[in-house]
Amino acid sequence: MHDIEIHIDESTLLRGGWRIMARKEAADHIQSARFTVLVAILAVAAAGAVYAAANGIRDVAPRAGEVSGLFLKLFSITENPVPFPYLTFVGFLGPLLGIMFGFDAISGERSQGTLPRLLSHPIHRDQVIVGKFAGGLGVIGLTVTALTALVSGIGIFRLGLAPEPAEVGRLIIWLVATIVYLGVWLALAMLASVTMKKAATSALVGLAVWLGLVLFGPLLFTLTANAVAGSDPVPLAETEVMLSRLSPATLYQEASTVLLDPSQRAVGLVTLGQVDRALVSELTLTQSLGVIWPQIVGMLALTSVLFAWAFVAFMRQEVRA
Amino acid sequence: MRTTVEASGLTKRYNGKTVVDGLTLTLSEGEVFGLLGPNGAGKTTTILMMLGLTEPSDGDVRILGHDPRREPLVVKRRVGYLPDSVGFYDNLTGRENLRFSAQLNRLDPRTAEDRIAAVLSDVGLPAAGDALVGTYSRGMRQRLGIADALLKEPAVLILDEPTTAIDPEGVQEILHLIRRLADERRVTVLLSSHLLHQVQSVCDRVAIFVEGRVAALGTPSELAESSSGPERVEVVVDRDLGHGIDDADFVESVAPGRTAGSYVVTVTPGATADLVSFLIGRGVSVTGVRRVGHDLDEIYRRYFEKELADA
User: Which of A26, A58, B20, B226 is the most buried (most CB within 10 A)?
Assistant: First the structure.
């Protein structure tokens, strides 16, 4: 009896190994040179984007009374010479954060030969991969939150305009959506790191998918839609929209546009007939969320599928493989 | 003596090939057990099954009464393991690597620092702890691996090829450490090696493991007895043996030993006892008898050559 009691206690004591793993993973990321370099690049790009946006807002400022969500415009508009607004650039470069933190999660352990030793300590195999995902996502969350705070700070300073509570709410939800979006890329990179033997191959796979979806995606979807749907404009456009929603980049772009602009009432294809005689009005945060709920759920589902795949593949591998 | 490791009918098949075939083994506390065999004999697979890191296809393992498949964490908390070609995080120092292991073993930070200092000096790395592991030599990594296994103060220590990549002097230190752990802390040590000479002196029992099967198991001297080759015996006697001993038909040759009054006598297999009674019958008083032959070597070679010939 006594013996049984002892090891029940011990099993309880040995729970939560994933947290130890996550802490180490996060510490490793933050101390790594690649993190410093990438954050520096992102910070410069973010500052550039917001600077240009602030100039744009100054131009419309005289009409400020008519422009809604003025502070949020900081994130969604741009002006020459900066080509992208902040949200586009997060959608475009953000995936690099996910890929960077995930590509060597497991393959790195393998190439250093640390996996058998790690697993000989009291930690379950699933806790290793869960901990690595959690640690990576934590650092990603921290990074995008810090960047967004930086952008907001510059905006407040340049414009002398403080965000309203509703705008802060939108910004926070947008941050959550951004973290979910980057989670898709982190899960993808981890899947590559489990299935590829070498960290370099795994990084290449991640980058190839990123280039394919984010850079060449629109072109690819247009061509496919042309081939599938014929030349009738409405079905063609609908097919294209549907196809492009297979990419997390599209889902994220749609979600951020609606979240950061209260006057956006729909995503995707809107015909003139649908907006005919519609009153110009703004959506509340709940209504905006309602519009892009499918996008958010889609990104969550994609993350879950990719992570589950990586998880199962990792659990089935031999320690020595 | 308390039983610590029990394997019965342990079997592992990979894609239809049997790598470990019905291994049955019982180890007790304070015992040093050597699993000897050529590379690819299934030693590492056996060890991984004992740790619950790979599923046995058949059979059963109990470590300190726990099944590694059902209670892996409890087993891993008590078993120290040095993997074959051990790896560490190159971007961390030796001490930082050990600190992470200490966290995984839920040692509180204070205890952890004390133990890290202790195990680093046990394995002879007291000064290198604060250097990045990336700068370590293979031998240093191996030592750090042993330190990592010792950190949790294991009741069972499993060392896969602990002496490869370590210089000869270092090997002696490591073997002493292993013996000390077994004698003083009653640790059960299971070590695998393909280098018979290096480890046979430290092992209480050895198993010669070929193609997933135990070809021979016993104390080194038992195995030597079962051998068919001639035996070499060192006797210490009170007088000059000179002549008179060569006429016994089981004596093949006599040579002076290392100290005064000691002789190394080569006798036919199993004739050690005959030699002693022969000497006593001649009125010689025998103060020491020790088997010095490398007969285990011969067994080992025999199995390995067979294995090589088959391959």
Answer: B20
Q: What is the DSSP letter of B93?
A: B
- Name which of A7, A20, A31 is nearest B104 (Cβ-Cβ): A20
A232, two tokens: 């009738």
Measured in residues, chain A has a length of 321
**Secondary structure (3-state) at B217:** strand
Nearest by CB to A13, from B72, B104, B106: name it: B106
Query: In this predicted structure, what is the pLDDT of residue B178?
Result: 93
CA torsion through residues A277, A283, A287, A289, sign? positive
Instruction: Write out the two tokens for B278.
Output: 């022969």
Please give the Cα distance from A12 to B50 (Å, whole number): 22
Closest partner residue to A10 (CB to CB) among B74, B89, B103 is B74
- The reply to whether the predicted model has a pTM over 0.90 is no
Task: Check residue B285 and report its DSSP letter.
Answer: P
> In this complex, do B53 and A28 lie within 8 Å of one another by their Cβ atoms?
no
Structure tokens at B111: 């205890």
CB pair distance less than 8 Å for B106 and A124: no
Instruction: Say which residue the tokens 């000897």 belong to.
Output: B36
Find all residues with CB under 8 Å of A154, minimum gap 6, and list them.
A47, A50, A51, A54
For residue B188, the cross-strand partners are: B156
- Cα-Cα-Cα-Cα dihedral sign, residues A102, A103, A106, A110: negative
Are the C-beta atoms of residues B80 and A122 closer than 8 Å to each other? no
The rounded distance, in Å, linking the Cα atoms of A90 and B208 is: 61
B254: phi then psi, degrees, rounded to nearest 5: -130, 135
pLDDT tens, position by position, B209-268? 888 888 888 887 777 666 666 777 888 888 777 666 777 788 877 878 777 778 888 888
d(CA B26, CA B191): 14
A5: which chain B residues are within 8 Å (Cβ-Cβ)? none
Task: Identify the three-state secondary structure at position B39.
Answer: coil
Residue type, B176: H
Distance CA A88, CA A85 (A): 6
Instruction: Fill in the DSSP letter of residue B284.
Output: P
pLDDT digits (tens, 9 = 90+) for A263-294: 777 777 677 777 677 766 778 888 888 888 89
- Each residue's pLDDT, cut to its tens digit, for chain A (321 residues) gives 445 555 556 777 788 889 999 999 999 999 999 899 988 988 888 888 888 887 777 776 666 555 567 788 888 877 767 777 888 888 888 899 999 999 999 999 998 999 999 999 999 999 999 999 999 999 999 999 999 998 888 888 877 777 888 889 999 999 999 999 999 999 999 999 999 988 899 999 999 999 998 888 888 888 888 888 777 877 888 888 888 888 899 899 889 988 888 877 777 767 777 767 776 677 888 888 888 889 999 999 999 999 999 999 999 988 875
- Please state the ipTM of this predicted complex: 0.84
Cβ of B53 within 8 Å of Cβ of A119? The answer is yes
B244 C-beta neighbours (distance < 10 Å), count? 10
CB spacing of A122 vs B100 below 8 angstroms: no
Reading the block at residue A308, the tokens are 């589950």
Contacts of B113 (CB under 8 A, 6+ apart): none
Q: What phi and psi values does residue A114 have, to the nearest 5 degrees? A: -90, -10
